[in-house]
Amino acid sequence: MSPDLDLTARTTGHGPLCRLLDLDGRLFEAAAAWHWPGAERVLPRLSRSANHGVLWFATAAVMAASRTPRARRAAARGLASLSVASLAINTIGKRSVRRARPVLDPVPLVRQLKRQPITTSFPSGHAASAAAFATGVALESPVWGAAVVPVAFSVAASRVYTGVHFPSDVLAGAALGAGAAFLVRRLVPTRAQVRRPARPRAGAPALPEGDGLVMVANRGSGSADRVRALQAALPKAELVECAPEEVGDELAKAAARARVLGVCGGDGTVNTAARIALRHGLPLAVLPGGTLNHFAYDLGVEDERDLARAVRHGEAVRVDAGRYRSGDREGLFLNTLSLGVYPELVRERARWSRRIGGWPAGVLGALRVLRADRHPLELEVGGARRPLWLLFVGNGVYHRMGLAPGRRTDLADGLLDVRVVHGGRRPALRLLAAAAAGPLTRSPEHAAVQVNRLRLSGIAPGTPLAYDGEVTAVSDELTVEKLPEALTVYRPLRTAL
To answer: Is 398 helix (H, G, I), strand (E, B) or coil?
Structure first.
């Protein structure tokens, strides 16, 4: 094992390291002698607030509270980068390079921290954490990065200002932190790095000011601010806000006078708009406004800025839709369709969501469904009668992100993503095992296959079927098929800033 490198205050000699240490000491003394206007009240407090990463955890919480997917991803990436940087500093950096802290004599007393650090000086852990968090945030969201980077720079500068680090300690720490953020990006690519399959642009009108766009907003989605921000970006667009029970009628009226049909709401509302857009041959503009917003997010529309940019420039693509038929019932789905325990979960979630909110209602619904005493669903698949706890059909192949099917990178792949959890004892364990397994796992409990058409029979009358967050009843026979590239949807094709 190589010996630790000792960087003490020694500055005598003529070697490159000695000259570097001498220059570092001179820069430290110059910083101590320089008057930093207005910094005496700010930088020492800012430096203390960054102890143990408290400042960055609080910043991440504020970002997550904004409720935008990009902000939440940026916050998570920033914290992951900070964790990697802290691990490197505490296990390698501080133990491998032992350098004494600067002598505080040239630093004015008003700048000095009340509690001086007792660890070695090289590299600066505060600078590493600040650079890691800010770089991680900026890699995912340049807008949030522009807000965080000045704070991170000030934290790094405060370590020299308060006299606890030499300038080279801060530079080395910042370089290590930025490197940690890029390492995290290599391991977990950002959304911008994920390459979506090339698709030809669909013919859709460019509306620089939104003239011809009629946006119907579900008032129950609670996204009034987002809708008004879109109207500010597209001032000639027509906005119609309505109650949830009026959405279908208002969309039908809007389709009769619109060049582009717009919708703001959750996946169920978007499903209704897609059916009407198909019927009238209109392109669809989707603004996410619900709890999950799977279709909009998989499409690449996360907020009003994305949608406004796409509408202004006429950026659109064609995407697949799924269609189901059972007796005289026929419906469309853009995301998923399922039989078994999931429709019951959707009903429980809808029952509780108005009281406790969408995500808590989803957790409570899952617990109630999994604890209930029930029998598996009986279906005839391929000529054989089989018990099933869950049949999941995705409109397009879902890629894994965590324990559940995550998101789709191609909304026009022509495939149905079919996953099955077979019946048997202990449904909760089987469902959790299926969720943790890969998408094409074969086992006695669960299986998956990708097809373009599915036919099921022997379904008991009144069996609940869930599609895009809505629930209906089917019986006897169910046919599910793809409608390839059936729908034209606006989607930003340019890189967002």
So the answer is: coil
What string of DSSP letters covers 53-112? GHHHHHHHHHHHHT--HHHHHHHHHHHHHHHHHHHHIIIIIHHHEEEPPPP-TTS-GGGS
Angle made by CA atoms 117, 123, 125, in degrees to the nearest 5: 60
Q: Give the residue-averaged pLDDT of 391-407.
A: 70
| CB distance 248 to 272 below 8 Å | yes
SS3 content of the chain, % helix, strand, coil (to 5): 45, 25, 30
The DSSP bridge partners found for residue 380 are: 385, 457
Please state, in angstroms and rounded to a whole number, the distance separating the CA atoms of residues 118 and 100.
Answer: 9
Structure tokens at 466: 């869930």
Higher pLDDT among residues 497 and 341, named by residue:
341
Give the number of C-alpha atoms closer than 13 A to the C-alpha of residue 34, restricted to the C-beta side. 14
pLDDT in tens, 135-144: 999 998 888 9
Alpha-carbon gap, residue 95 to 365, rounded angstroms: 49
User: Model pTM?
Assistant: 0.66
Sort 176 into a burial class: Cβ within 10 Å, 0-12 / 13-18 / 19+: buried
